[in-house]
Amino acid sequence: MSDISSPSRRAGMWAHASNDIPRVVLVLTVAAAALVPLGLNEYWRFVASMMLIYTLVTLGFNILLGYLGQLAFANVAFFGVGAYAATIAMNGGLNFIPGILVGGIGGGIAGFLVGIPALRIRNYQLAIVTLATGELLRWLYIHGGSITQGSSGLEVPAMKLAGYQITTEIGKYWVFLVFTVLCLTVTRNLLRSSVGRAIVAVRESESVSLGLGMHTAGFRILAFVWSGALVGVAGGMYACLLGRITPESFGLTQLLVHFSMVMVGGLGSFVGSIFGALLLTAIPETLRNFPGLEEIVFSLLLIIVLRFVPEGIGGFLGGRISGLRDRFFGGKS
């Protein structure tokens, strides 16, 4: 029988406990997140659901911008494809859960298609091509005939679970929280795996990665597919939350919001993506009753962060909390 009081045993227990700390923190965070809407009114419960959606949107965008280091702005295209794919699937008879998953699949396919030209073009050319992709898809939504219903958009069927219709905002929030936690968990594990490290290695030096025998093209495509799938799931959730989607929801304004969330949160930062999404979703809603102030504060915040904290919130905190940087905050540098 092993001696629990032996130094090696104590060291093993300490190491085990250290590994468990993040899980405890994560469990407590999820529990707290589940309780948050209990103290909110219906409107802020709606906003809380929107925060969850934008968390996935920001993290998906950050996979390409931060982790892969590509100027790819197809995020709003993935978002729209996910929303429309989920809505069309639900109108075809699917329940909202597989419907949202269809949105993720649609986003992943879009990511694959956008990722192929990204193997040959880089930087500003890639930025222009991906921007054009988003606008092209928006044109297709408008001129999609009976499939997309043009500018009036598509109505989304009600969310039903086990025969019961989910009509309250708190019910939707809890469903979206489950989707968000699952997506964050899978993404966190992916980014911390050899696959995630390979994606970062491609960002740092593609020539060195090739020299080490890595299939850099495959990892590039994988990053685009995973980004598209993550944002596609968010698009499906977005459609379910709003109850109707229109082409105007997936334009350049939406892309600017996504980009701002990534920059404020921090490039290549997992937790920063969450902070950026929460902050830039809450601020406009808080100031909605003050016409004009919303845009001013939003713009000032973006300028201040880019000027004084260019690494974003995640990079700022990760650089000052020793030992937690790699585990929680990631960070590009």
Report on this model:
The protein is built from 14 helices and 4 strands. α2 runs parallel beside α6, α2 packs antiparallel against α11 and α3 packs across α9. The strands form 2 sheets. The protein has a two-stranded antiparallel sheet with strand order 1-4. The chain has a two-stranded antiparallel sheet with strand order 2-3. It has 333 residues and is mostly helical. The chain is 72% helix and 3% strand.
Main pleated sheet: 2 strands, antiparallel
Q: Structural class per helix/strand content?
A: mainly alpha
Strand % is under 5%
Helix content: over 70%
Q: Low-confidence stretches at least 5 residues in length (pLDDT < 50)?
A: 1-20
Number of helices: 14
Compact overview of the structure:
The protein is mainly alpha-helical.
Notable traits:
single chain; 333 residues; mainly alpha; two-stranded antiparallel sheet; two-stranded antiparallel ribbon; 14 helices
Structural topology:
Layout lengths: L6 H29 L6 H26 L7 H17 L4 H20 L7 H20 L11 E2 L3 E3 L2 E3 L2 H24 L1 H11 L1 H6 L4 H27 L1 E2 L6 H14 L4 H17 L6 H16 L3 H7 L6 H5 L4
Antiparallel strand pairs: 1-4, 2-3
Helix pairs in contact: 2-6, 2-9, 2-10, 2-11, 3-4, 3-5, 3-9, 4-9, 6-7, 6-9, 7-9, 10-11, 10-13, 11-12, 11-13
